[in-house]
Amino acid sequence: MYRAKTISLCMPCRNESKHLEDVIKRVPSFVDEIIVVSNKSTDDTVQIAENLGVRVYEDNRTIGKIGYGFAHMTGIHAAKCDIIVGADSDGTYPVEQLDVIIDNMIDNNLQFLSCNRHPMLNETNIPFMLRFGVWSLNMEVRLLYWHKMQDMLSGMWLIDSSIKDKLNLRMGDWNLSPEIKINAARHPEINFAEYHIEQHQRLGETHQNYWVTGLRHMWWIFINRFRITPKARRIFSAESKAECLKNTLRIISENESVNYIRSNSQSV
Ligand SMILES: Nc1nc2c(ncn2[C@@H]2O[C@H](COP(=O)(O)OP(=O)(O)OP(=O)(O)O)[C@@H](O)[C@H]2O)c(=O)[nH]1
Ligand SMILES: [Mg+2]
Fold first, then answer.
1. Does the Cβ of 67 fall within 6 Å of ligand 1?
2. Pair 86, 156: CB distance under 8 Å
3. What is the pLDDT of residues 111-141, one digit of tens each?
4. Is 147 exposed, middle or buried (0-12, 13-18, 19+ CB in 10 A)?
5. How many angstroms separate the alpha carbon of residue 176 from the centre of ligand 2?
6. Could you tell me if the CB of 190 is within 6 A of ligand 1?
7. Nearest CA to 105 among 87, 119, 84, 88?
8. Backbone region of residue 108 per phi and psi (left: phi > 0; alpha: psi in -120 to 50; beta: other values)
9. pLDDT tens digit string along 188-234?
10. CA of 4 to the centre of ligand 2 (A)
11. Quick one: which ligand is closest to 207's CA?
């Protein structure tokens, strides 16, 4: 608990077994619950997370082999605390500085705070292509939505739990990242702001394809603004993918039992 608010930290996770312990050790002790949502990890991420004593979910829904958005949706839905923090589990986000970040959220009466990495505050070696991609998406959002954002692709944000159902999240893949910020910033009842953070060097090698992911973001931001056709939207929407219905959402470490639930909805 921090300043009378309970705090959940939700982390999407795929094949992060080597780094998970380091990242979890950095989390301040005032965080009330840590939720790790693994998605098709092929290493022992799930086992390691269980051994670390956190709540572990395995959500194997994917779109184009990516389940980042589904993992966040599952984490947000499962979180029980007043403030829900979402952050990548690759060590890049300063979870150890959560106190000042939460201070900023509470002092400014925000319901959604997005952690902005740009301009970089230190010598972190972020590839030029990634910086250029983020700048391009910021410009696209500025032109199409009239929202000035510094970091459309930040992987760390704080949500006041009272507005979690207003976020209307649908994107199960990487596009959850722009979706959650755009939906929060445009919602008339959500006070949205960015807060400048320091980014750390990634632990381990990247598996990200910056070109493919960046172009998909660009296209999604465009069709989301103009809602071109229902069919075009369905191609990119979570519900349209038959694979979502086939996979299972497996809940581990809940009441020390293992449950299997059909994952044709987002409920857990
Ligand atoms: N649950 C789940 N987590 C994922 C998936 N893909 C990546 N992740 C996690 O999501 C976070 C972000 O993924 P990254 O691979 O770091 O992608 P990125 O931050 O865009 O790129 P780099 O940090 O530059 O490699 C990490 O914590 C990953 O473990 C997935 O399909 N499902
Ligand atoms: Mg990363």
1. yes
2. yes
3. 999 999 988 776 666 778 888 999 999 999 9
4. middle
5. 14
6. no
7. 84
8. alpha
9. 999 999 999 998 887 877 778 888 999 999 999 999 998 755 555 55
10. 31
11. 1
With 0-12 / 13-18 / 19 or more C-beta atoms within 10 angstroms meaning exposed / middle / buried, residue 100 is exposed
Q: Determine the distance separating the centroid of ligand 1 and the alpha carbon of 54, expressed in angstroms.
A: 19
The full length of the chain comes to 268
Whole-number pLDDT of residue 124: 65
On whether the CB atoms of residues 63 and 172 are closer than 8 A, the answer is yes
Please report, as a single letter, which amino acid is at residue 58. Answer: E
7-262 folds as Spore Coat Polysaccharide Biosynthesis Protein SpsA; Chain A (3.90.550)
Domain boundaries, the chain: 7-262
Kindly state if the Cβ of 19 falls inside 6 Å of ligand 1: no
Give the helix, strand, coil percentages of the chain, each rounded to 5.
40, 20, 40
Ligand 2 center to 192 CA (angstroms): 23
Does the beta carbon of 206 sit less than 6 angstroms from any atom of ligand 1?
yes
How large a percentage of the chain has pLDDT more than 90?
Answer: 71
Q: Dump pLDDT digits (tens) for 25-45.
A: 999 999 999 999 999 999 999
> Is the minimum distance from the CB of 3 to ligand 1 under 6 angstroms?
no
